Amino acid sequence: MLLNEQETRDLEERVLLKLRFRPAAGYRGHSLLWWKRPFRLPKPWAVYALDDMSQDQIEQMAPAVKKALLQTTAPGERLYAMDWYHCAFLYDPRKENEQKSVKEADGDGKYRAAFPFYYPDGDYYFFLDEEFRFGYLGHPWRNEIWAFGEKLLPELERIAPALGWKKLR
């Protein structure tokens, strides 16, 4: 389900406050020094660099991460999927029909609300459970995945080698 504009802004505010997200395009390295971190995540958390992924691995990323998120949720649990400052969805990871882009009226006609990708290819893409117990956060400028949560991290550890992710923390 596509969130309306106010729901999306409310979710953005929660991300800013709970994860202390600092969006910025200026820094493009992999420093984990506290003053350069884009997030302050609850423990446990991990960071993966995506620099060495092949095109085949990028294509394998969506099904692998979808499966990891599915394994992390119980039936009936929903996740937020967010394209930062664009749109957000609330969806059931067991329902494929909820994981797609939609056309929505915007007052001047129609616009396309794109369901976020799992590879951060120019936008911040976030996948979070409703209570922020775990999250998968794609950072496009640092070319990294930041993740947190006891349930999600083992699933990502399992898929990281096949996808060519380099664990930074």
Low-confidence stretches: none
H/E element string?
Answer: HEHEEEEEEEHE
Please bin the fraction of helical residues: 25-40%
User: What does the average pLDDT come to?
Assistant: 88
Give the number of helices. Answer: 3
Helix and strand composition category: alpha+beta
Report the biggest beta sheet as strand number plus sense, adding barrel if it closes. Answer: 7 strands, antiparallel
The radius of gyration computed from the alpha-carbon positions, rounded to a whole number of angstroms, is 15 Å
**Spatial shape:** globular
Terminal CA distance reads: 33 Å
Bin the strand percentage: 15-25%
Neighbour order of strands in the largest sheet: 3-2-6-7-8-1-9
Number of self-contained structural domains: 1
Number of strands: 9
Your description of this structure?
It is a single chain. This protein is of the alpha+beta class and 169 residues long. It has one domain. 26% of the residues lie in helices and 24% in strands. The strands form 2 sheets. A 7-stranded antiparallel β-sheet has the order 3-2-6-7-8-1-9, sandwiched between helices. Strands 4-5 form a two-stranded antiparallel sheet. Helix 2 packs antiparallel against helix 3 (152-163). The chain starts with a helix and ends with a strand.
